[in-house]
Design a protein that fits this description.
- GO terms for molecular function: sodium ion transmembrane transporter activity.
- Its main location: membrane.
- Strand 1 and strand 2 form a beta hairpin.
- Among the domains are: 159 residues, no CATH class; 104 residues, no CATH class.
- The chain is built from 19 helices and two strands.
- The protein is globular, with a radius of gyration of 28 Å.
- A two-stranded antiparallel ribbon has the order 1-2.
- It is mostly helical and 438 residues long.
Length: 438
């Protein structure tokens, strides 16, 4: 990473900002609002051109035209227009809230990182030794952490800052706010705004999460259960990591407080962000296997015992839609897990010679970690070490590079496909249901 100039780092920062899921979801809200507004305009035109039949009646010898059907229709149209207008304004408010959320986290996060580095000499010395500017590093790291890219301008990721517990503490919330806890924090933000402003649009958003058509907006119960599940996963990983790595080489040179903060930072980043304060190659296999499972899970995985209740809410029309015949393409789709197994097999084939000659670096576990990390868009890597070579190569030099840097071009190409597959996994999340294993 340190070969990039300051200008190139700024360009990468912009790409990370524009490509993050939160920012792209804001664009989706604006597009849905525009389409909804056009649809409403067409409906209003149709309604304004409709004229119902008149009904003549006699009163004192005079005929009077009465239009009760038209009056009822006008009342219904007026009520419908109010509902549609409220929904349109609510979508607009939701887009503003999400964009404000995006700006507040980045401005606050980058400011705190810059302030910490300016005040702490050890962190400032790391940047000066690598020729990095504080402002560029702060914005780059914040954007990468929030959008879960896993990039850090230093070659060794966050390993250079493993003793700067304050910096790790600043970055941990940004990792959660941009991914696993985004729906919960977004709903909390809307609830606070509703209490402060008393605007009916915020109330409508909270009460009609499905009608808003925003996948990151969850119900109150779902948001709470998601937060509990994320906390449970972090606690489970934290306990295992501390119990297996507390006295290992990964924690050398750190005091108790630094070990606690380093372990917490590592397990939080194992879900999606992929920034690391330890060398993954020296971590125990049990912890690595748990990391593989955690990286595979989608961002909004939660313990949700509300399936039955939600099914009862579905109308008869929706139930009929669910019973429609599945297309041939959907039947041929494999499950995400099956697809990952195929990718691992293909990479093992392309790297078969290195698996034989260099088994300590090239083994199935390291390849699996790299593949699942790419699928989950995490960025974890065990790296490559010349010291682990069974047949030492005099030309080999240790360098801070990802494990995939030592793969063949075909292996790298397959991993690129895995990254795209992982980024678009929501379109294949129900794949493999045509297969019955029992």
């Amino acid at each position: 990473m340190e070969v990039f100039s300051n200008t190139q780092l700024i360009i990468i920062t912009i790409l990370m900002l524009l490509g993050g899921e939160v920012f792209t979801s804001v664009l989706g809200l604006y597009l849905s609002r525009s389409n909804f507004s056009k649809q409403q305009t067409k409906e209003n035109r149709v309604a304004s051109n409709y004229h119902g039949p008149t009904k003549p009646t006699t009163f004192s010898g005079l005929e009077i035209d009465q239009k009760p059907p038209n009056l009822d229709l006008e009342c219904n149209i007026s009520s419908s227009d109010n509902d549609q207008s409220l929904k349109l304004n609510s979508i607009k408010c939701l887009a503003y809230v999400v964009f404000g959320y995006f700006l507040v986290v980045h401005i606050t996060g980058s400011s705190l990182v810059a302030m910490y580095i300016s005040l702490v000499p050890s962190a400032r010395e790391v940047l000066s030794s690598k020729g990095l500017k504080i402002q560029t590093f702060s914005l780059f790291t914040t954007a990468s952490t929030f959008s879960n890219c896993g990039f850090v301008p230093t070659n060794e990721s966050m390993l250079a800052f493993k003793k700067n517990s304050g910096l790790l503490l600043i970055l941990i919330p940004q990792t959660l706010l941009g991914n696993t806890l985004f729906p919960s924090c977004l709903r909390l933000s809307i609830w606070v705004l509703e209490k402060i402003t008393r605007k009916v649009e915020f109330r409508y958003i909270l009460m009609n999460t499905r009608e808003m058509g925003y996948s990151h907006l969850l119900s109150f119960a779902h948001s709470c259960l998601l937060a509990i599940t994320v906390s449970g996963f972090i606690m489970m990983q934290f306990i295992l990591f501390c119990s297996t790595e507390w006295n290992s080489g990964a924690m050398d040179g750190m005091n108790s407080y630094q070990k606690v903060m380093g372990a917490l930072f590592q397990v939080v980043n194992s879900r999606h962000s992929g920034e690391s304060v330890v060398d993954l190659s020296v971590i125990s296999p049990a912890t690595l296997v748990l990391f593989v499972v955690i990286m595979y899970l989608p961002a909004y995985t939660s313990f949700l015992p509300l399936k039955q209740q939600e099914a009862e809410v579905v109308s008869g029309t929706d139930q009929k839609c669910k019973k429609q015949r599945t297309s041939l393409v959907q039947c041929l789709l494999l499950s995400p897990l099956s697809s990952l197994v195929i990718f691992v097999i293909l990479i093992c084939i392309t790297e078969r010679e290195k698996l034989k000659k260099d088994p300590l670096n090239f083994n199935v576990l390291n390849i699996t970690i790299e593949v699942v990390s790419a699928y989950g868009n995490v960025g974890f890597s065990t790296g490559y070490s010349c010291k682990r070579q069974l047949e030492p190569d005099n030309l080999c030099k240790d360098a801070w590079t990802g494990f995939v840097g030592r793969w063949s071009n075909m292996g790298k190409f397959i991993l690129i496909l895995v990254m795209f597959f992982g980024r678009l996994k929501k379109f294949n999340i129900n794949g493999g249901k045509a297969w019955k294993l029992s």
